[in-house]
Specification:
Strand order of the largest sheet: 5-4-3-2-1-9-8-7-6
Number of helices: 12
Number of strands: 9
Order of helices and strands: HEHEHHEHHEHEEHEHEHEHH
Distance between the termini: 25 Å
CATH superfamily: Aldolase class I
Helix content: 40-55%
Largest sheet: 9 strands, parallel
Strand content: 5-15%
Length: 269
């Protein structure tokens, strides 16, 4: 059983929902990331999602686009991100780590080399925004061979037949994008989210995580009522930007927001 599956099983046994924070690796600078990962775990994170910097992040809104630009100013590469995970594993061998990014850096490294090096570094899963399950057949067995989960996205417009395809191909969990558009956009409709999560659950036994539009304890609590996990991204990345990379202020801001969200989630389960 993968670290991601183990974590979800443990949370279910305790009647708890997962909190999955996202930050862009290398933002505001490469030295900050590993320490920030530990801060997020201490604040209540169950799974960590690290964004791999990419020059054309088409699924991201302005907040995360700027974060990737800041990371790329420091020339942070996929290999650098794997190094960050490896350093994180020196102190934390339990918390699952998911890489979220785009296919191009993985293709440049090579599927086999990426999977081998990611597993060796302590990565548990990958979510590649621009790799649909229909085009992942050659990659899936390589990931499975190295014990890596692959997470696919379900959107508000995904049809049931495609949900079946995603459910068969994916592992770890299903990531439901609760809003149409890019990260950080729109208003969260919890009733619609509940209906879509129920539809997804008819096609898979995998946990369902909901992301996009979750900004605070109140919105996180509403989502936790209907999903297995809450993903928080742009709200955290905005804190990185607002603190201008000042380490103490940054870590305190991230910790305070996550602790508040953790409390919100735990009050409804």
């Amino acid at each position: 059983m993968s670290r991601i599956a183990t974590q979800f099983a443990a949370l279910k046994q305790r009647g708890r929902k997962a909190l999955i924070p996202y930050v862009t690796a290398g933002d505001p600078n490469p030295a900050a990331t590993v320490s920030l990962m530990h801060v997020m775990v201490a604040a209540g994170a169950d799974i960590l999602e690290l964004g791999v910097p990419f020059s054309d992040p088409m699924a991201e809104g302005p907040v995360i686009q700027r974060a990737m630009e800041r990371a790329l100013e420091h020339h942070v590469s996929l290999r650098d991100v794997l190094g960050m995970v490896k350093e994180f594993r020196e102190k934390d061998t339990i918390t699952p780590v998911l890489l979220m990014g785009y296919l191009n850096p993985v293709e440049i490294m090579g599927y086999e080399r990426f999977a081998e090096d990611a597993a060796a570094a302590g990565v548990d899963g990958v979510l590649l925004v621009d790799l649909p399950p229909e085009e992942a057949e050659g990659f899936l067995p390589i990931l499975k061979q190295h014990g890596l989960d692959i997470i696919f996205l379900v959107s508000p417009t995904t049809e049931d037949q495609r949900m079946e395809t995603i459910a068969r191909a994916g592992s770890g969990f299903i990531y439901y994008v609760s809003l149409k558009g890019v990260t950080g956009a729109g208003h969260l409709d919890t009733d619609e989210v509940a209906e879509r999560v129920q539809r997804i659950n008819r096609h898979t036994d995998l946990p369902v995580a909901v992301g996009f539009g979750i900004k605070d304890a109140e919105s996180a609590a509403r989502v936790a009522k209907v999903a297995d996990a809450v993903v928080v991204g742009s709200a955290l990345v905005k804190k990185v930007e607002e603190t201008a990379g000042v380490t103490d202020k940054l870590e305190m801001a991230i910790s305070n927001l996550l602790q508040s969200i953790r409390t919100g989630i735990d009050t409804v389960v």
